[in-house]
C-alpha cells in the first residue's frame, strides 16, 4: 500500500508554529475534558531520516483517559512509511493509551507503551521498556491490577508487553500476613511473589510464515516450507538439506553467498550443471556451506522470585525500611538480596543491599535493553538469545546501591552502582546515572537531561563504555512560546555483531535522533 503526502517535509516542521492558539497542559485538564498534544520535525532512526508529524488527542473523564497516536513518518521520497500502515495490527497501535486510575488504586489498568516497568525491588525486572525499538516496533502493553481491603490485603498485578502477541508476560501477587497484628511494626509486613515469562525470545524478529527463517533474511515471508533466497542474492534454493546433506537448489550455485561456488556434493544445482564447470576448478569449490540464518529449537525464559518488605520507621522527614528477595532463572542460576534497606531523608531517596548470586544468574534480566538483547543475529549467521550468555556468568557476592535527589524541583539526580566480586570471569559491575535540569533561572530553557547506563559487565573503564549492555540518552527542550517548545532527543545503544568484543563495525552503534517542535492545545 503506497500512500503519498503531497507536501514538503519542512512544512511539517513549521505546522505547529502556525497552529499554536489557545492551549492547555493535558495534566491540568478538568475531570471532563479534551486535550491535544503533538510534535513535528525530524526523526533519524538508523540510516534513515524521516519527517514526522505526530498528533496525540486525549479524552479524560475523571480517572479514565483515552488517547490516540497519529504518528506520520514521511520518507525522504515523500511517502508515508509503509511499515506503519500495511498490517491490521498497525491500526491498533494508533491507540496511544487507555488508562483507568493509578497503580495504588483499588482497581486499575493501563493499555499503553511502558518506558520503564519494574516488579518489586527489580531483581528480575527493572525499568523494562517496550518502546526501545521504536519506530521499527510499536507495542501496546497492558498492566492491570487490584488492591483489596480483604483480610491480609491481597493484591494482584498482571502485565503484557504486547497485547497482540502476549509473549513477554509478568505477574505479581502480594499480601500482608500480619495485617491487624497488635505489633504495629509488623502490620505493614508485605510478602510478594513475582514471575516473568518470555514465551518466545526469538520474537524480536518477525517470522510471518513460521518457517524459522527471520523475515529480514527471508525474501518470501509468505511462503512457508518452500523455496527461499537464503543468502539474499535473488537466486532461490531450498531452506534445508536433504538426508544426504544436499541442498536441492533451483538456480543458486552459491547458497551461503560467500562468493565461492558450492561443491556438487552439497549443491544439486551445481551437480546438474557440472559439465559447464572447468574441471580444474573442482578441487577449489566450497566444501562447507556456512550456517544459514534460522531460529533454534522452540524455547522460553521463566524467572520467578519471592520477597518481603517491612517499613521500620515512618517520620515526617525520615523513613526507613527493610526488604529481601530471592530469584531463580529456570534451568539456570539463582540469586538473592539480603539484607536490603530503603530510606528517605529530606530530598534524598536511598537504597542499599547485599547481593549473592550463583553461576548463570544475572540481576534485572528483563531490563531497559531487553528488547534489543532478547535475541541477536550475528555475522556468523547464528541467532543467540540473551539467556544463552548465562553459561559464561560465574557466581558472585557484592552490593548494590542507589541514590535519587530532587533539589528545589530544579535539579534531579539519580545514580546506582553494583559491585560484585568473584573468581574468574564474571559480569558483576553495573552503573547508571541520570542528571535532569529544570532551569527556572533560564527563561527559555524548559528542561535538559542526560543519562547513561551500563549493566552486568566485567569492569567499568573509560575505554569500555560502549558495550551491548550500555545505553546513552539525552534531551533538551527550548520554549518557543507558552504553548510550544523545540525539543531534541538522542539515544545510542550498541550491538557486537561480529563478536570481537569491540563496538566498531557497521551497524554496531544504533543511533536515534529527533528534532521536533512539541505543542499542546
Give short descriptive properties of this protein.
521 residues, mainly beta, two-stranded antiparallel ribbon, 20-stranded antiparallel β-barrel, 5% helix
Account of the 3D structure:
This protein has 521 residues and is mainly β. The protein has four helices and 23 strands. The strands form two sheets. The protein has a 20-stranded antiparallel beta barrel. The N terminus is likely disordered.
Shape: globular
Please tell me the overall pLDDT. 85
Q: Specify the number of helices.
A: 4
- What is the straight-line distance between the termini? 32 Å
Main β sheet profile:
20 strands, antiparallel, barrel
Helix/strand order: HEEEEHEEEEEEHEEEEHEEEEEEEEE
Query: How would you classify the helix and strand content by structural class?
Result: mainly beta
Task: Please tally the β strands and state the result.
Answer: 23
What is the CA-based Rg, rounded?
27 Å
Provide the low-confidence segments as ranges.
Answer: 1-30
User: What's the quaternary structure here?
Assistant: single chain
Query: Helical amount among residues, as a percent range?
Result: under 10%
Amino acid at each position: 500500500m503506497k500512500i503519498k503526502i503531497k507536501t514538503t517535509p519542512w512544512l511539517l516542521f513549521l505546522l505547529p508554529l502556525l497552529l499554536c492558539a489557545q492551549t492547555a497542559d493535558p495534566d491540568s485538564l478538568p475531570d471532563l475534558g479534551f486535550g491535544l498534544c503533538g510534535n513535528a520535525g525530524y526523526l533519524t532512526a538508523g540510516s534513515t531520516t524521516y519527517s514526522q508529524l505526530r498528533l496525540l488527542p486525549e479524552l479524560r473523564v475523571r480517572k479514565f483517559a483515552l488517547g490516540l497516536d497519529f504518528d506520520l513518518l514521511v520518507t525522504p521520497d515523500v511517502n508515508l512509511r509503509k511499515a506503519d500502515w500495511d498490517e491490521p495490527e498497525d491500526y491498533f497501535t494508533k491507540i496511544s493509551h487507555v488508562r483507568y486510575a493509578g497503580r495504588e488504586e483499588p482497581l486499575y489498568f493501563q493499555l499503553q507503551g511502558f518506558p520503564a516497568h519494574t516488579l518489586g525491588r527489580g531483581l528480575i525486572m527493572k525499568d523494562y521498556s517496550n518502546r526501545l525499538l521504536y519506530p521499527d516496533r510499536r507495542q501496546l502493553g497492558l498492566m492491570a491490577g487490584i488492591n483489596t481491603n480483604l483480610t491480609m490485603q491481597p493484591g494482584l498485578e498482571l502485565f503484557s508487553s504486547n497485547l497482540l502477541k502476549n509473549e513477554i508476560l509478568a505477574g505479581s501477587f502480594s499480601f500482608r500476613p500480619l495485617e491487624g497484628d497488635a505489633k504495629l511494626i509488623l502490620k505493614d509486613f508485605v510478602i510478594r511473589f513475582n514471575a516473568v515469562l518470555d514465551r518466545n525470545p526469538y520474537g524480536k524478529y518477525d517470522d510471518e510464515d513460521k518457517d524459522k527463517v527471520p523475515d529480514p533474511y527471508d525474501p518470501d515471508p509468505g511462503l512457508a516450507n518452500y523455496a527461499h533466497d537464503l543468502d539474499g542474492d535473488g537466486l532461490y534454493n531450498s531452506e534445508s538439506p536433504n538426508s544426504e546433506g544436499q541442498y536441492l537448489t533451483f538456480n543458486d550455485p552459491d547458497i551461503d553467498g560467500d562468493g565461492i561456488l558450492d561443491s556438487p556434493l552439497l549443491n544439486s544445482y551445481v551437480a546438474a550443471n557440472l559439465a559447464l564447470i572447468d574441471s580444474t576448478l573442482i578441487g577449489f569449490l566450497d566444501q562447507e556451506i556456512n550456517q544459514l540464518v534460522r531460529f533454534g529449537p522452540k524455547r522460553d525464559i521463566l524467572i520467578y522470585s519471592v520477597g518481603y518488605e517491612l517499613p521500620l520507621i515512618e517520620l515526617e522527614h525520615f523513613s526507613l525500611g527493610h526488604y529481601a528477595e530471592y530469584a531463580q532463572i529456570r534451568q539456570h542460576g539463582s540469586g538473592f538480596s539480603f539484607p536490603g534497606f530503603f530510606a528517605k531523608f529530606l530530598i534524598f531517596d536511598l537504597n542499599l543491599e547485599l547481593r549473592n548470586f550463583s553461576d548463570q544468574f544475572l540481576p534485572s534480566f528483563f531490563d531497559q535493553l531487553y528488547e534489543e538483547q532478547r535475541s541477536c543475529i550475528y555475522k556468523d549467521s547464528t541467532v543467540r538469545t540473551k539467556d544463552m550468555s548465562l553459561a559464561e556468568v560465574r557466581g558472585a557476592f557484592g552490593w548494590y546501591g542507589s541514590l535519587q535527589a530532587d533539589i528545589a524541583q530544579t535539579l534531579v539526580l539519580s545514580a546506582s552502582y553494583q559491585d560484585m566480586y568473584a573468581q574468574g570471569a564474571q559480569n558483576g559491575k553495573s552503573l547508571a546515572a541520570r542528571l535532569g535540569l529544570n532551569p527556572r533561572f533560564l527563561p527559555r530553557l524548559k528542561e535538559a537531561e542526560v543519562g547513561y547506563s551500563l549493566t552486568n559487565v566485567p569492569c567499568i573503564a573509560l575505554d569500555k563504555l560502549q558495550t551491548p549492555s550500555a545505553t546513552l540518552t539525552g534531551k533538551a527542550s527550548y520554549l518557543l512560546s507558552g504553548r510550544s517548545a523545540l525539543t531534541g532527543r538522542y539515544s545510542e545503544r550498541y550491538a557486537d555483531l561480529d563478536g570481537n568484543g569491540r563496538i566498531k563495525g557497521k551497524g554496531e552503534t544504533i543511533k536515534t535522533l529527533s528534532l521536533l517542535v512539541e505543542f499542546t492545545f
